[in-house]
TrEMBL record:
It comes from the Bacteria. The keyword DNA-binding does not apply. Residues 88-222 form the SusD-like N-terminal domain. It holds the Pfam family SusD-like_3. This is SusD-like protein.
Length: 552
């Protein structure tokens, strides 16, 4: 009989007593590979390795982050780039984008790898092998869910819309066409329910677990608008006792923690300095390298957007501001340079140096002197403004910042500094805070406003900002609006925002400074009905398989 062979990743992960390390694997016959539990474990961990790629970048999770985060409204690119990531950021999608093509191919590498294990691990032999089988079901579900988000429309826009092909075997001649959104969701839910049943060993946040399956089920049901089950699965994770929210002081440094040392991390794609970044040069190609330049390493060309800054600055003491690091300029004496700045009607930043005299702050513009006044908002925060020819112009009163192409450098640190390594980061898939947010959104959509606010207040308290009550809801806003704002603040730079906006039928508002507004026909607003909220099927896949229907 001809033996079936599989090719494991060139550098697959193996488990050692002290850490995750890389180990080369040759071509191995499946029958030999799966002859003992150790081989089964090594092959399963090889599937995890496919998520992160050979050198900690260019892998599945790297491209997923860029596809998911750059199309949101939390970041601002300070100019342009020849890299195809620009088309993800500015919504000028192209079917030949190498990043979406690589994400597609890497996704199916993981899927085929998990299919091999699912076909060949016998259920019910040992608890350890059931755990590994469950992990493969989880990984397949995770990849299909994220592929569906990237290439298929939100569930509530029509379950019969096309999503991605469901390949559920390892057979090379199994080349399915695109399935529907509903069929992909059904498969994801089925895999996660199976994984939840099989997994009873918690090996830490670097590996899938029962709670990881429950956490992802909570999100899947939330996206599907099955709010009762979204809340139910969120509560399963919260009540499991396996996870706790970081205290405020430690939360401010969450990005420095390895997932296994973070008590609220449920599952993350874990990277380590010893095996995933092989020298300083690798740090220039990580996710964090675009968000910040640290110790002279990294491009530092993509910053927190003025839209996100305006939201988080509503509460100046918000602990989540720790993940944003303004790059202040200094004068010859090492002191900050006082300025006011604002965004003009052309969506460009305006900076003016100020002078303080007898408690009055002024600046000069085109020979005219303007006085800065202040007022207090409903939250007790001090707001600053000057009277322009067009009326009141609100400003930020601060110190001058370093700039690139006129864009102030508000570095994003959430994807850097793990274990004090410059741009090391292990992208989070699920953490406990999301469960409170899922629960809050599910409650809000069912009209349980008090319970929704109770859930987000857990996170607001941790962030060091006032709790919200029904009487605090601003005129014209709903509890759901407040919940989604809290979700944006908490999960910023973790790859959620793009999907949260469109699945809720909202419009992505991008009327703020950034390279996305350069060129002809920029996208200032993207409604949830736009064709551009999902990516093209990679052109090379259409060429290889002409029966695949392209997204419009």
């Amino acid at each position: 009989m001809k033996k079936l062979y599989i090719l494991l990743p060139l550098f697959a992960l193996i488990i050692t007593s002290c850490d995750l390390e890389r180990n080369p694997y040759d071509q191995v016959a499946v029958e030999d590979l799966l002859s003992d539990p150790g081989s089964i474990e090594a092959a399963t961990v090889g599937n995890y390795a496919l998520l992160k790629g050979d050198l900690g970048y260019s892998g599945w999770v790297d491209d997923l982050h860029r596809i998911s985060e750059y199309a949101g409204d939390n970041i601002s690119l300070s100019g342009g780039t020849t890299d195809d990531l620009f088309y993800l950021y500015n919504y000028q999608a192209i079917p030949t984008n190498y990043r979406t093509a690589r994400f597609w191919s890497n996704s199916y590498k993981v899927i085929v790898g998990t299919n091999v294990m699912i076909e060949r691990i016998e259920e019910g032999v040992t608890e350890e092998e059931d755990q590994l089988l469950g992990e493969n079901y989880y990984l397949r579900a995770l990849v299909y869910f994220q592929m569906g988000n990237v290439f298929g429309r939100p569930y509530n826009q029509g379950p019969s819309n096309l999503s991605v092909p469901l390949k559920l075997t390892s057979a090379t001649d199994d080349i399915p066409d695109r399935n529907t959104v509903e069929e992909v969701y059904e498969q994801v839910i089925s895999d996660l329910e199976k994984a939840e049943t099989l997994m009873n060993i918690n090996k830490g946040a670097s590996y899938a677990s029962k709670q990881a399956a429950q956490a992802l089920l909570s999100r899947v049901y939330l996206y599907k608008e099955d709010n009762n089950l979204a809340q139910e699965y969120a509560d399963k994770v919260i009540s499991s006792g396996e996870y706790t929210l970081l205290p405020t002081s430690e939360f401010k440094e969450m990005n420095t923690l390895r997932p296994d040392n973070n008590p609220e991390a449920i599952f993350a794609v874990t990277l380590s300095s010893e095996s995933d970044l092989l020298g300083e040069s690798d740090n220039w190609y990580t996710i964090g390298s675009l968000y910040a330049s640290i110790e002279g390493i990294g491009w530092g060309e993509m910053y927190a957007s003025s839209s996100y800054l305006n939201l988080i600055n509503k509460n100046p003491n918000d602990a989540r501001k720790a993940f944003i690091e303004p790059q202040y300029l200094e004068d010859d004496n090492g002191d900050g340079i006082p300025v006011v700045y604002w965004v003009n009607s052309q969506y460009s930043y305006e900076f003016r140096e100020t002078t303080d005299s007898n408690g009055t702050t002024t600046f000069v513009d085109n020979g005219s002197t303007y006085t800065i006044y202040s007022e207090t908002d409903s939250n007790g925060n001090e707001l600053y403004f000057f009277n322009s020819s067009n009326g009141k112009q609100y400003v930020n009163k601060d110190f001058d910042l370093e700039k690139r192409n006129g864009y102030p450098k508000f570095y994003i640190l959430k994807a850097s500094l793990q274990e004090d390594d410059v741009h090391m980061w292990s992208p989070t898939v699920s953490r406990l805070a999301e469960m409170y947010l899922n629960k809050a959104e599910a409650y809000a959509k069912q009209g349980a406003d008090d319970l929704a606010l109770e859930a987000i207040n857990v996170l607001r308290t941790r962030a060091g900002i006032p709790e919200m009550t029904l009487s605090d809801i601003p005129s014209g806003k709903t509890v759901l609006d407040i919940v989604l704002e809290e979700r944006r603040l908490e999960l910023a730079y973790e790859g959620h925002r793009r999907y949260d906006v469109y699945r809720n039928g909202d419009t992505m508002i991008r009327t703020y400074p950034g390279g996305h507004l350069n060129g002809t026909n920029p996208f200032y607003e993207i409604p949830s009905t736009s064709n551009r909220i999902i990516e093209f099927i990679p052109e090379q896949q259409i060429i290889l398989q002409p029966s695949l229907i392209q997204n419009p």
